[in-house]
Amino acid sequence: MIDSPNSPELTKLCDRLSMMTPAVDGDLVAANAWPEEKVRLCADGGVYRWFVSQESGGLGWSESEIARAYLQLSAACLTTTFILTQQVSALRRVAGTQNEHLRSNLLPKLVSGESIATVAISHLTTSRRHVGKPVLQANRADGGFIIDGYSPWCTGGCGADWLVMGAEQENGEQILFAADKNLAGITIQPGHQLMGLTASQTGAIHCDQVFIEEKFVISGPKPAVLTSGKGGGTGGLQTSTLAIGLATAAIEFIRNESERREDLAQTHQAFREQLSTLKHNLLELASGADPQTLGCSAQEVRASANSFVLRATQAALVAAKGGGYVQGHPVERWCREAMFFLVWSCPQPVLNSNLCEFAGIVD
Ligand SMILES: Cc1cc2nc3c(=O)[nH]c(=O)nc-3n(C[C@H](O)[C@H](O)[C@H](O)COP(=O)(O)OP(=O)(O)OC[C@H]3O[C@@H](n4cnc5c(N)ncnc54)[C@H](O)[C@@H]3O)c2cc1C
């Protein structure tokens, strides 16, 4: 059981994940690969307990302890860590519900890792918001809701027992609910072939007249159902943490190379200094520091982390030269994985900041 971010057991888990990494890069294995063993290793290490309070059967880690653990995990294997964040987002939604049925029956199984849940909720916030009609609709029925339509994105539906999903009523109010993935009318589409992280098995979920009993409603109906409760920090520090974790792996690669190549020493030193500042700001904010006193907000950390992970992975490619461009080299995978932060849970100000940097616009 991993009971602290300083635990040697966490280091051991990261070492194992890191050694297994090439096997979960979907471009190199069958497209339907799902990193079952890696997910199981995390569950066996009790990782789901970190995120839930002691009275709910967890370890109640603080946000900064979680950030420190995520930094290590994402440097070891971004795919597994990303999958974990989606499972944890579902777990936290269930942990935050007032619904006693779910709290008593589902939550203990999710906390222990006996059952796994994942989320399909981004169509309520960041995906398909410009289309006129909700892509996943909820209609009141006797004793619950009928759900129709689709959720465009769900990571690891194939490896989950439960789906935490959101749907919208005609009046604009939304519900969040837990659905057994084997419910009649639910179809989990095969994962897309992605630029990176293909083994996360991310695809759409279709719902055809799925009946959700009232006792499986986590929250709602109400406007903007995701703004209440804790879901793992959409657009928040968690995404920055994973970006910084991945950048750390690339910087470590440059460090190794710089031991034999003096020309890389200055580059390595510059990245180390930026890494230290970014990590400091991230962990301060995770500990509840006032952004104004710190001189840096969560969104600024996110914009910097996006830029940093792209630059660090590409610098690693420069260091690795042609060999790093060959499929199967960790650096080419890191470069592809770094692009994910440009599309994952990106609020508009972060998008703007990235676009200004790419377009060379200085303000
Ligand atoms: C690998 C991966 C894993 C993910 N996993 C999950 C998950 O597990 N759970 C989950 O809930 N979400 C998940 N997401 C969703 C993610 O959090 C974002 O919601 C998603 O990336 C937003 O992209 P989109 O293409 O759906 O955006 P959209 O806004 O729907 O854009 C789609 C297209 O619509 C057009 N468009 C966009 N905006 C406008 C506009 N204003 N006017 C006209 N046209 C427009 C553009 O052509 C764009 O390409 C995942 C995403 C990825 C890439």
CATH secondary-structure class of the largest domain: Mainly Alpha
Bound molecules: flavin-adenine dinucleotide
Number of separate helices = 12
What would the average pLDDT be, to the nearest integer?
Answer: 93
- General shape: globular
- CATH superfamily of the largest domain, called what? Butyryl-CoA Dehydrogenase, subunit A, domain 3
Helix content: 40-55%
Largest sheet: 4 strands, mixed
Low-confidence stretches: 231-235
Question: Which short descriptors sum up this protein?
Answer:
4-stranded antiparallel beta sheet; globular; 3 domains; alpha+beta; binds flavin-adenine dinucleotide; 4-stranded mixed beta sheet; Butyryl-CoA Dehydrogenase, subunit A, domain 2; 363 residues; Butyryl-Coa Dehydrogenase, subunit A, domain 1; 12 helices; Butyryl-CoA Dehydrogenase, subunit A, domain 3; single chain
